[in-house]
Amino acid sequence: MTTTTTWHPGERDLLEAAFHSFDQAAQTLQQSYSTLTARVEQMDLDLAHSNDALRQQLRKNEAMRMHLDGILESLSTGVLVLDDAGVITRSNRPAGHLLGVADAELRGRHATDVLETAGLAAHDRPQRIGQAVVSITQAPLKTDSGCHSGSLLLIQDVTRIYQLEEQLQRKDRLAAMGEMIGRIAHEIRNPLGSVELFASMLRRDLAEMPSSKLYAEQISQAVHAMDRLLANLLTYTRPERTPRAWHHAESLILDSLTLAAHAITTIPADIRLDLDPRVPSMWCNDGQMKQVFLNLIVNAVQAMPTGGVLTISLKMDQEHRLDTPAICLTVSDSGIGIDPAHRSRIFDPFFTTKDEGTGLGLAIVYAIVEAHQGRIDVESVVGQGTSCTIVLPHPAIPRLLSDARCVLVPDTSAELAELMLVEETSHE
Q1: What is the pLDDT of residues 122-164, one digit of tens each?
Q2: Spatial distance between the Cα atoms of 186 and 264, rounded to a whole number of angstroms
Q3: 387 or 93: which leads in pLDDT
């Protein structure tokens, strides 16, 4: 059976209008969807660009942070970053090394407590901490806008500068003293010869009067002692007048130990030699260098009255302390050490802490080393010992002399006899 639906003209128009509206709404929705999809795609693209720019900026920031960290850690100056309360928020390794505290242990502590524990204060005057000399300065830390954001403590190792200043002051002081000493020595030596002449004449005339002759012999002995002292003074004032040559290093040291036997045998000393085979020879004046070794060895022995360890080492200078290839000879003892109050004066003529010393031993050592264009460094800890390091230029050894078996300038009995006249009590 077939059913026939009859549409009224108005209903048909209404239905068509509805379908038309639906089509328009669908088209509008499709356009909106397309527009939204395009916007989402553009937003995704912009977000991807933003993320990529952000990642690049983060990488740059990280690289900059690592670079700044590298600069901070590469500084020789110790850096402490403090907040407004004076608490350490950051530090670098040099700061921990100079203060003797691990970097991690510094953070969170008050800077004043850390400095007081190390025996330091926040001022720029030179301060000694162990074997180093430091200067501490404080500077405000500000942001880009100029706002205060804590402060910086800069700990600078000025040991080398301090040593150079000391050396310059010592050179000026010793130059003036040396000129005066040289003139006095010459003036005294002239009448001393006359005294010795008359003493010898008295010994001859009093040959049959033993008691009176003894007085003349004592006068003569005193004159010889005075002459040896004057000879040391003249050695101090003009050590640069003697020639130099290549000499076997081990022989120089062993000969010096033999000459110092009178002091070494008085205490139970353990002598240790550490000689680098790469340094078979030394460019020096052998007589003067033996005098240097002798004075340092006797000093070291006298610093160990109850015994100890005497170490003599010879090696290449790895720290480039001179502007030329150099060698280091170190004489170390395990003795009483040097009082820090005396350290700056140990090379001054006539300065001594010994009851029977004249204070010329180390002054002569310093003058001879200076005449060899070298330097001498002293490190000492009270109760632990002293190390005296001599740094001498080491020019290229000629091919003929590079062999340890080569013929070097031999020692002469006259040189040994002259060294034996070094006054045993002329050490600091």
Answers
A1: 777 888 887 778 888 888 887 777 777 788 888 888 877 877 7
A2: 34
A3: 387
> Letter for the amino acid at 201?
M
DSSP string over 129-183? ETTEEEEEEEEEEE-TT--EEEEEEEEEE-HHHHHHHHHHHHHHHHHHHHHHHHH
The angle at the Cα of 77, spanning 76 to 82, to the nearest 5 degrees, equals 145
Task: Please say whether the beta carbons of 76 and 92 come within 8 A.
Answer: no
Residues 333 and 303: their CA atoms lie apart, in Å, by 7
Contact 94, 75 (CB under 8 A): yes
Are 427 and 302 in contact by the 8 Å Cβ rule? The answer is yes
The three-class DSSP label of residue 47 is helix
Query: Is residue 424 within 8 Å of residue 263, measured between CB atoms?
Result: yes
At residue 298's C-alpha, the angle toward residues 293 and 303, to 5°, is 130
- Put residue 393 in one of left, alpha, beta given phi > 0 → left and psi -120 to 50 → alpha: beta
pTM of the model: 0.52
Fold of 74-157: Beta-Lactamase (3.30.450)
SS (H, E, C) 322-386: CCCCEEEEEEEECCCCCCHHHHHHCCCCCCCCCCCCCCCHHHHHHHHHHHCCCEEEEEEECCCEE
The domain covering 244-420 belongs, at the CATH homologous superfamily level, to Histidine kinase-like ATPase, C-terminal domain (3.30.565.10)
- Distance between CA atoms of residues 284 and 240, nearest Å: 11
Q: Which of 390, 358, 199, 178 is nearest to 290 (CA)?
A: 390
In angstroms, the CA 243 to CA 371 distance is 11
